[in-house]
């Protein structure tokens, strides 16, 4: 128990919170056919982080999140601008924007001699779940010890706050979100301001992706925005039930992926472990594959129904 509390409780909890948060927002992205927005935001975080480093001279979490957040919002604006002015498909606009901005980030690193900054594949893609150790987490009593709780990794607090904000947003804005997702024209006629709702949704997607970036990397973020919601969409045509399914799938992927990353190699006779983030994303993909093959709505067409 002590070993689990110290080494696994925090990373597992963070993986669960981030997975379920991204899956909750992913339901509305899937309905709007905007699932790749999360992918784009995860990729264009680099130029934002580099610019924030060049301005502040530090890679502190707040500066990094602000820089990546600004880059994410600029990305969304550029995608919409190119899509409307160039009259191209949204996916094509996404490809142009996030590859261009990623290239700008690399050029800035080289141009200003900041290539030695610790922005490597390990942290950008895989995150650092395994390193989130709670040194004071000795026994169940630590959960009620203010001194021990103060030593919790800060990534847990950030993930929890973002998750809470997302839940509050979905609960309060449920009706405008549903209307804007199914019929933007009707939503505009009802004066629910679908453009503002879209901006708020994309902003929260950016905040969730950036908050998760340091702890779990972009692999989980991209997978969880798409896989649980897409799999849930194949299980039902009811939005409320779809959201429940997506949360169940996200929870299964987070818990199962984290456990398999440590135990699966041992079952095969290897004295090693796998990346928790990679295994969680892989399990989410397998859940989506199973839903594609066996989901009751896999052969149906048409939009989901409101509850």
Automatic annotation (TrEMBL):
Q: Which top-rank group of organisms is this from?
A: Bacteria
InterPro entries annotated for this entry? Answer: ABC_BtuC-like, ABC_TroCD
- Zinc-finger in keyword set: no
Q: How does it sit in the membrane?
A: Multi-pass membrane protein
Q: Which Pfam families match?
A: ABC-3 (PF00950)
Keywords recorded for this protein, A-Z: Cell membrane, Membrane, Transmembrane, Transmembrane helix, Transport
Does this UniProt record's set of keywords contain Manganese? no
Please list every transmembrane segment annotated in the UniProt record, as residue ranges. Answer: 6-29, 61-79, 91-112, 132-152, 159-179, 199-227, 239-261, 273-294
The compartments listed are:
Cell membrane
Supply the PANTHER family for this chain. Answer: ABC-TRANSPORTER METAL-BINDING PROTEIN, METAL TRANSPORT SYSTEM MEMBRANE PROTEIN CT_070-RELATED
Q: What's the family?
A: Belongs to the ABC-3 integral membrane protein family.
> What's this protein's name?
Metal ABC transporter permease
Which organism was this protein described from?
Answer: Halomonas marinisediminis
Upper lineage is:
Bacteria, Pseudomonadati, Pseudomonadota, Gammaproteobacteria, Oceanospirillales
